[in-house]
Design the sequence.
């Protein structure tokens, strides 16, 4: 199974921890957006603090993995691909953390009638992120299972795009909110949607890396 990690059990554990941190960060992000929309400020702040710690943990783990790869000359034939995968995966959790920070700083007013769509958008974006985490685990442990997850990333990313577009169309067709607020609502739809875009970016790279490993 874990062919790539025969040389180091510790490296395998760190990669698993890293992917766990990314996955947990995505789940926290989804719940935090719900908290914000439902005006549960205290819980939102708690989740904001939690994702900040998870993002820092992921950064530290990534640096340790990079050091291990170079200092101990581990998996030299795959080192570049592993580093590229981790760096691109970082963008996924970074985008989730940054989006929550922007909710906290700018405090957009989201009319309740849009809550359902924003929650659906979050779910699709997080599903895309979760699927790329599963695909990444498969890359390290069962290379032939990568495809089973990659197609889901692309599906969820397209669904996120559709929902984001629907939100923007509804917002700009509305007569009961100001133009400045419409721009704000569009901006946050784009922020959430970009998480799925980053997951797709990782999927594109992982597809190439997987082909290289099976040649």
Sequence:
């Amino acid at each position: 199974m874990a062919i790539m990690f025969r040389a180091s059990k510790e490296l395998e554990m760190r990669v698993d921890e890293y992917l766990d941190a990314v996955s947990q960060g995505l789940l926290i992000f989804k719940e935090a957006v719900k908290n914000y929309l439902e005006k549960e400020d205290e819980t939102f702040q708690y989740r904001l603090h939690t994702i900040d710690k998870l993002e820092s943990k992921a950064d530290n783990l990534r640096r340790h993995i990079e050091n291990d790869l170079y200092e101990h000359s581990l998996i030299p034939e795959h080192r570049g691909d592993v580093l590229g995968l981790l760096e691109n995966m970082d963008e996924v959790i970074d985008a989730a953390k940054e989006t929550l920070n922007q909710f906290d700083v700018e405090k957009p007013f989201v009319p309740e009638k849009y809550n359902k769509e924003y929650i659906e958008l979050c779910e699709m974006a997080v599903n895309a992120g979760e699927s790329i985490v599963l695909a990444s685990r498969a890359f390290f442990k069962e290379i032939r299972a990568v495809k089973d997850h990659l197609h889901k990333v692309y599906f969820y990313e397209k669904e996120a795009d559709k929902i984001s577009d629907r939100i923007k169309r509804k917002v700009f067709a509305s007569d009961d909110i100001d133009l400045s607020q419409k721009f704000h609502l569009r901006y946050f739809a784009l922020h959430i949607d970009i998480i799925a875009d980053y997951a797709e970016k990782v999927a594109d790279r992982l597809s190439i890396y997987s082909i290289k490993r099976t040649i």
